[in-house]
Amino acid sequence: MPMSPDQASKVYIPGLKNIHAVIKQGQTLVDTQLERLENYSRFRPKLESHRVEKNAQLARVESILERHGVAASTFKEVTMKAAAGVAIPTRPTAADEVIKNSFATLALARCGADAYEILLRFAEAAGDTESLPALQQSLSEERSMVAFVEENLHPTGMRSRQGSHGARYTRSSASSAKL
Question: Dihedral through CA 153, CA 155, CA 157, CA 161, nearest 10?
Answer without folding.
Answer: -170
